[in-house]
Design brief:
mainly alpha
């Protein structure tokens, strides 16, 4: 199913993107501990957002979506 592909893709892409971007952008700007916290927080936020979107889509695929006012 598509949700397994999303999970598999996110398991690789989210940490890779977060680590590379933040190291390139902020190495030497922040102390290593701060940079590690930024990377960890970004990974958690991305996984959380991805999980919410996947669950929302799974409900929508079953015809159980909640439509926001005005949409």
């Amino acid at each position: 199913p598509w949700i397994q592909r999303v999970i598999g893709s996110n398991l690789v892409s989210i940490p890779l993107d977060s680590i590379l971007f933040n190291l390139i952008a902020f190495a030497g700007v922040f102390k290593p501990g701060v940079l590690t916290a930024i990377i960890f927080g970004e990974i958690v936020a991305k996984f959380t957002t991805g999980a919410v979107a996947a669950l929302w889509r799974a409900q929508d695929d079953k015809g159980m979506s909640v439509h926001l006012a005005g949409s």
